[in-house]
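Continuing the batch. This is chain 6 of the set; chains 1 through 5 are on the previous pages. Same settings as before, nothing changed between runs. Recording input and output for traceability.
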Amino acid sequence: MSNKSFKFKQFTIQQDKTAMKVGTDAVLLGAWVNLKNELNTILDVGSGTGLIALMLAQRSFAETIDAVELNENAYLQTVENFENSDWGDRLFCYHASFQQFTEEIEDKYDLIISNPPFYTSTYKELNRDRALARHNESLSFEELLYGTSKLLSDTGTCAFIIPFEEEVNFIKIAAQNKLVPNRITRVKGNENTAIKRSLLQFSKTKTEIEIDELIIEITRHKCTNAYKNLVKDFYLKM
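Output for chain 6:
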């Protein structure tokens, strides 16, 4: 994907410094996560360009929206995008690993959100920065969910987007950290393709699980109404 800036309706993402560009996964998660509970504090784990944190700044009145990013270039990119937005006074990025952040921060968050690294078996043909951003050796699911449980307020929620084939294992690890699923949306490219992603929202309180499916396209470049309704507040052409 191009290094050119990506313009959304209420903010612009510069992406020339970081290997991870604006992608569908992050936009899906930022638009999908349920914000029904009153939110004062939000944490975005692995901010990349800061996209998800900016989406949540647009969607909520949370006073504090923190992000944590290990990669130096991605951290600098996040800070730049935060400062250039209308919500810079509510946004802050820490340059640290999530593991380090978890041990040093005593604050609790009402929402923790992450589009985590997920290539578990191989770096494939990616450059080093992109591979690290997408490879869960830099932040395993166990470390992510342990830290999330530790930093999440008793009434808070947390949300993630992961490969569908990891869903059962991810929910099992979450349960080991006293996190139970409340919402699950399984994402398909079109009606005839396999499920590709799982959007998951957890809390520390057991509820009846809302489970549904989201199909992105009817045909190539023709999006479903469900997808358009989900992202219409962000994409310029929706």
